[in-house]
Amino acid sequence: MSQVLAGLGWTGRYLWAGWAGLAGIFCFLAGWQAGHEIYGSFILPSPAETAAAIGALMARADFWTVVRESAGRALSGFAIAAVIGTASGLVAGYSFAAMRLMKPLVTVMLGVPPIGWIVLALIWFGSSGGTAVLTVVIASAPLSFAGALEGVAKRDRQLDVMAQSFGASWLYRLRTITLPHVLSYLFPAWTTTAGSAWKVTVMAELLSNSGGIGGELATARALFDIPLVTAWLAVTVILALATDYGVLHVVREAAERWRSAGLPWGVKR
Amino acid sequence: MTGNAALAFSRVGHAFLGRSLFEDFDLTLEKGEAVALLGPSGSGKTTLLQIAAGIVEPVKGRVTRGYARQAVVFQEPRLLPWMTLTDNIAYGLAARGESRAARRATAERLALSVGLEEGDFEKYPAELSGGMRQRANVARALAVDPDMLFLDEPFSATDVGLRRHLQDLLIAAAREKGFAVLLVTHDLSEAVRVADRIVVLSGRDGRIAASRTLAGRPGERSERAIFEQVEAWSDDPLFAELFSATERLR
Q: What integer pLDDT is reported at residue A233 of this predicted model?
């Protein structure tokens, strides 16, 4: 019974926290409306016009196909980057030699602008989804790497010693001590990269003419259909927010429930 | 090392950042024996315990272990903040691959035996008081059913009542299960209460300054006998020399 109540309390708190986010979004919409009223529909269509254009888009037979195409690229790029970045960050955290070896690579990956990688990927992959996926991986992996590296370096050595004294294997210590600690460093990296994965995907699609939301944006731009442009941009933002708040935040709240456990009811983090 | 020894240090030496902590340290603990290591700050007591428990590798000499399972009760509880109370108590059991149901049953039994309540089982360490965390620390060590228990100043940060309760609990568990105990402490009365033998380390070179077997068995000594023993040790010139006034007050 107490577990059910605790679960309900947690869900209630999570949903209630959503109001603050919604308030921020409505402030943004108000600013957008003000811009529209100053510059007119051709320069900046209103939120209402954009909503109508989204409605029309959703009625299109190929809407979900387009969204699925971009989502597949953004999310697979994000997942590949998260896995590679986290794994190499963990290795670098444990091994000084690996860290010295990998850090310059990460600097190179961070130093070259995403547009540069798009040009290279276009040559390697042509007008295919591979261009978007590769660009997302290269833009996102360094952040997961840095998060995992920092997390391992800052782990509580005393807990490690405690586990060793009980004869815990290296793998068991990694799973029960290092990873739960590293997660708190990885989640900020993952929320940042999940958002940028959508942006980079749309940009790569637009430049490589490989369909998806980016391809639709290119068409709308060619037709000077500005409400369609803002509609696709709004769809991209909604998808990025859905990835962040619908997936990553929920996973984080569930995985790090212990953090809020010691706080009395009503204390804000 | 005799066949009846639980633990033997032979000519163990250790240095930290070029400073020698101790050299040629010899000590043998018999099976089921409780030894208290007493010494001033910086005499290397905790390092010796860590070497014995295999946490620190000595620079020279060797440690022979005649036991199968060990457990350490640390000065700080060292509970995993992301695990519930019972999962923390069962940590050592989980590390050696016991089934979830078996380790949960053991953890719950031990949690109750150290004075924790059923309503606390699913709480995280952040929801527990300092005393409750220390009880969990002791329960986690007892859960693995050790035949060698290391205690690293385990009750120095607990109030008098809880300290007595946990000391009595450990004495009773040691008598029932027959495990050997190596206790590192600053507290002379704790050493007299818990140990069969007290070994005093010299602060300068980490050599054994005194080693005495106490009369009677832990748990059977009267409060008066404990008080008299503490008094006798405190009046000993050797002891007075090793422990400054501030040390004794601790």
A: 94
- Interchain pair A172, B95: CB under 8 A: yes
pLDDT of B95 above 80: yes
Q: What is the pTM of this model?
A: 0.82
Contact of B124 with chain A, judged by CB distance below 8 Å, is answered with yes
Cβ-count burial B91-103 (b if 16+ within 10 Å, e if not): bbbbbeebeeeeb
Say whether B54 and A256 touch across the interface (CB within 8 A). no
Residues in chain B closer than 8 A to A163 (CB atoms): 91, 95
Nearest CA in chain A to B76: A158
Q: How far apart are CA B53 and CA B7, in angstroms?
A: 10
Indicate the pairing of strand B19-30 with strand B5-16: antiparallel
Q: How far apart are CA A188 and CA B13, in angstroms?
A: 46
Q: pLDDT band for position B248 (50/70/90)?
A: very low
The answer, yes or no, to whether residue B243 has pLDDT greater than 70, is: no
Q: Which of A258, A260, A265, A267 to mutate to test the interface with B (most CBs of B within 10 A)?
A: A258
A112 CB contacts (<8 Å, ≥6 apart)? Answer: A138
